[in-house]
Amino acid sequence: MPQPIRFADCELDLDAFELRRGGQPQPIEPQVLELLAYLARHPDRLVTKDELIAKVWGGRNVSDAALASRIRSARRAIGDDGEQQRLIRTVHGRGFRFVAGIEPPAAPTVPAPPPASRPSRRTLIAASAALVVAGAALLAWLLWPADRTPRMSIAVLPLATFAGDLVADRQAEMLVDAITTRLSKRREFFVTSRSTTSSLKGKPLDARALGRELKVRYVISGSLRRSGDDILTDIQLVDVARGGELWAGRPTFASSDQAEAHDRIAARLVQAVEIRLMDVESRRGRRERPDTPDAEDLATRGYALLNGRVTAETNEQALRLFEAALAQDGKSIGALLGLARTELNAVTNQWAPADERAARLDRIEAAVNRAVALSPDNSFGQRIRGGLMRARGEPEQAIAAFTRAIELDPNDAAAHAELGRTKIDVGLARETIGHIEEAVRINPHDRDLAFWYFWAGQAAVHVGDADQAVLWLRKAIEAHPNYINPLPWLAIAYALQGRDEEARRCIDQFRAARPNFTISGWDAAYRRTHPAVVAQLEPTREVLRRLNVPD
After folding, report:
1. Would the pTM of this model clear 0.85, i.e. be above it?
2. 20 to 30 A Cα–Cα from 153, which one of 185, 209, 275, 320?
């Protein structure tokens, strides 16, 4: 059995495939751990980028950005960073060196065999008692009812593949690793370890029976196969107790895109699973603890409301639930960020009275700061902070927060979209569409897709690209037919193309819902102070006048 590699305050246990710092296991993606292990096994020598890609990625096509992201994650896991480079040093243009001092392995000790002796009567009695206790424990484990399992407990089972397809086998393992790792990073989930579920590979898988055996409420199972250059999957979320399928998806990706596709699919899948389980667990909590909900019940109910159609009323209900959860557990990160999110919804949608705006923004800041102090690597907390800064009219700080959210989770689609939206506010609208396209690539079925399309259309109007603006704004309306905010922008884009008749139809449709729409109201809604943005918006006012919108 190989001995752990020890350096700094870290211990890399290759047999257990685990990284420990200060004796505590650290959350780390399997591929990042493989990269770290390879570097640690070759200390104090240059490991080229090509060598890393050959050994860790199997020679697949890997972008410099993907490699840099994995190196950054490896450094963060062992307490290093790109500025100090105490443990992993970059050799620019060449590769990397692992410069941490490796501690020599401890010499194995062989204990002397104890002298043979006949067990005493007392020893035999103690051994018999131990067997009885062990038998009782085993019986209790076998008979432990499903409703005693931890809430949001889940196991990701090996994906089935066609026999003999070694490439598909490897793809399936990597995807299961990515899903398990992403679930493990979410505090609300109790996830069965990968080492436990990997032992089930190749065995007949009955998701419901295995769920009971693993003592979890939910199981993710499915299959993966190759079709030409594509990898096709069929994945289900199963309720162990009831046996029903709660969610199903069939993500597909190109085999040439596999280096980043697993993380992207895992991010999309975990978001869908989380939304579904918040609703399921909310209803379950109401059934089991109708009169005595705990903090977790209350926070789950709040998120179940936010995952539906959010109105001023449902947002207020969710806010009260998060407040009640914090009254029971002031350190609940989910409740803190839920409260911040609902307060931000109230402010940005103008559901809160104007004279409460400043106090509510202060309350959001306090909740976010406390949540981030408790969980510094929480990308959602940074995303909420970005929304707070934007609401306060501080777009540069908002951009910094959204960028940090993406550093923590490159597959946070909403952070990419919000970053693109906020760049409009600082005169960088030409960069917006790229961010929106990345968000859509990560999650093409996000429930906020209409808003992302709208922001891309706004950016196109800002830079005077009417053709792109029409394309994006029409997609926004198609994605959400009842969402009317894109209509004036679409009217402006049509007018810039010389399609005045269609432009007026858009204005008429918008004014039917908002009869008090005026140019001064437009100025108030899109008031900006950045000189470049003011200049970009000036032509829109003239177009609205031409379309007979009153001052």
Report:
1. no
2. 320
